[in-house]
Amino acid sequence: MADTTSTTAAAPLTTADGRSLKAALATAQSRAKRRALFLVLPLFLFIVITFILPIGQMLHRSVKNDGFSANMPAISAWFAENPAGTEPDEAAYAALAADLQAASAAKTIGVVGTRVNYDMPGTRSLFTSSARKSKDFVAPFKESLLAADAKWGDPALWGVMRQVSKTYSGNFFLAAVDLARDADGKIIRAPEDRRIYVSLFVRTFFMAGLITGICLLIAFPVAHLLATLPLRYSNLLMILVLLPFWTSLLVRTTSWIVLLQTQGVINNSLVAGGLLSEENRIQMIYNQTGTIIAMTHILLPFMILPLYSVMRPIPPSYVRAARSLGATSWTAFRRIYLPQTLPGIGAGALLVFILAVGYYITPALVGGASGQLISNLIAFHMQDSLNWSLAAALAAILLGAVLILYWLYDRLVGIDNLKLG
Amino acid sequence: MALPVYASPLERIWHYTYLVICALIFLFLIAPILIVIPLSFNAEPYFTFTEKMLTFDPTGYSMRWYDLLLTFGMQNPDAVRDGAWWADAWNNAAWIRAAKNSIIIGAFSTLVATVLGTLAALGLSRPEMPLRRPIMAVLISPMIVPIIITATGLFFFYSATGLSGTYVGIVLAHATLGIPFVIITVTATLVGFDHSLTRAAASLGASPSTTFFKVIMPLILPGVISGALFAFVTSFDEVVVVLFVAAHDQQTIPRQMWNGIREQISPAILSVATILVIISIALLATVELLRRRSERLRGVTPR
């Protein structure tokens, strides 16, 4: 042993062609590293282009909205030159009149009105109607505009116009958490009748938590049964878990509509069995109950599978040993078995919670009015109200929450341990 | 899960209660999927069992909703059912057109996802792969990020790049959504992959491509195929991205179902659901067989 050490100290090991072994190893390793990277690179670029970039663009839109500033350049410039609180002077009204004329001619006044309307409901018509009369505006513009509509003298309106004249602003994020800016630019709470988003976020997280809890409660006994049965039987029973997993989401949602609706299978059976009178049919769908039942069913396999894969390798001898040492079956379960399943509980609960928070399809189809989640509101703003910046801001908040949970999942469970079937 | 001989009477009662609870949970899992099958043969336009169905009266059952799937959207559905009628159905029936779109989109997105995903999984499972965890986290993220966020992002991105309303756009989006499944299944097959096999092949003079096709590929093929099936099912079942980025005439089966459920739900939806359930049973059987084959190949035997 001492002999070898003295040789290495004297002359560093070399490869056959005389290079130092260390350098040769480093070259070989960096080549292997490059080869591995090279295999992953195409997919990585693909994901960046088709996934990361679009989401980045969406995040960009949540802070950028040029609906006002691009179509009303003169008044936007006036706002930029004059600090907040400046009384609008004749120059401001002249700029406004010029912009209204230009926007009317370019037919972009609708965009402008819509943008202001987001922050101050009921103002869209003010813009469109004034634009129609804009040909008659003459100096002095202040009198001319006020004659067209007295609302132009409203300081609150000028405050809002100052806000929306900024191309980049965090105002949509403020709106997404039920805040607003007043005429002076201070952050205040939104009017009571418009505070819907915070309570919807709370409801989304509450329902996701509830669904996760129910899933855990239902999945635990089943996973335990599957894990303790001999593999021959458990593989057969596993099919009952995997079949829902492979069945189309829309099919499963349709089935729940068929089962739960007031004229559906469950209500009909209860009425036929005499357990329920004809008038008292239970409303189980198109409300929160429907969303919870259907989502629990859909997400249950995501809880059973991680639990099963953790429970399977637990040796039954541990519980037997505890019993032989005098523990009751409950104590043995609580002190010996349960702690060993914690990694599975963590993995399943996090996964189900992450998936439930962003759920869209099932609440949209069976949720009615009270079972809607935040995703449904994002879709509403994308497709119906067309307030895309607000939709993007809501999506950004949801994305932030999901990414934090995803990071936690990676830390606690590890992405590599994600298994399907 | 046998009951030990030393179990007390209370434990015996609990044991059987437990088994009943488990049976009920399995019923909860499977009943909603199976219930649509008999109901799709309903002769009446109801969503529940009619009296005739319960007494197994043959007149209570019919194939009318399956027939509707064929004829809905046809130009001349009442004509004699000859060659021209079938040609009309093939070209014009709404559900057949949706099925054709779904299969085309599904096939191409599966191809993209499987090729790129398998290559990446090979790289990711090499021990010398740098930054393994963060890269893996990025590649799996399409499965984790809520679909509505992905759809919103793609909506903006595609309207800026002119991809909205094109098949290429939908295929790329669906490939992205299917990739995590391919990566997960293929890396799972590669766990415990004996890298000395590739070195042995190389030392015997095989080129990297020969090694890949003759040594690596046969071993990981079960994982690749199940990954591909997952990717196909993901695309075949995807509706939100299609709703956001597809053109109006680009109907797919899920989109057609979505419209059917939202507007006027008819038992025709149940007959589609039945067909889809049968497809998923076939897919599940395939994946299960592949998994067993993979276990046999890798020398893992059931206990």
TrEMBL record, chain A:
InterPro entries: MetI-like (IPR000515), MetI-like_sf (IPR035906)
Membrane-traversing stretches: 36-55, 204-227, 233-251, 291-311, 345-366, 386-409
Domain ABC transmembrane type-1: 201-409
Record's subcellular location: Cell membrane
Any one Gene Ontology cellular component term annotated for this protein: plasma membrane
Principal subcellular localization: membrane
Top-level taxon of origin: Bacteria
SUPFAM superfamilies: MetI-like
Keywords linked to the UniProt accession: Cell membrane, Membrane, Transmembrane, Transmembrane helix, Transport
Record bears the keyword Cell membrane: yes
Record membrane topology: Multi-pass membrane protein
GO biological process annotation, one example: transmembrane transport
Sequence similarity: Belongs to the binding-protein-dependent transport system permease family. CysTW subfamily.
Protein name, entry field: ABC transporter permease
Organism this protein belongs to: Aliigemmobacter aestuarii
From TrEMBL, chain B:
Main location, first listed in the record: membrane
Keywords, in A-Z order: Cell inner membrane, Cell membrane, Membrane, Transmembrane, Transmembrane helix, Transport
InterPro entries on file: MetI-like, MetI-like_sf
SUPFAM superfamilies cross-referenced by the UniProt entry: MetI-like
Gene Ontology CC annotation, any one: plasma membrane
Keyword presence, Transcription regulation: no
All copies of domain ABC transmembrane type-1, residue ranges: 99-287
Membrane-related topology note: Multi-pass membrane protein
Coiled coil: none
Membrane-spanning intervals of the chain: 16-41, 103-124, 136-160, 166-191, 212-233, 268-290
Similarity-based family: Belongs to the binding-protein-dependent transport system permease family.
Name of protein: ABC transporter permease
Protein species of origin: Aliigemmobacter aestuarii
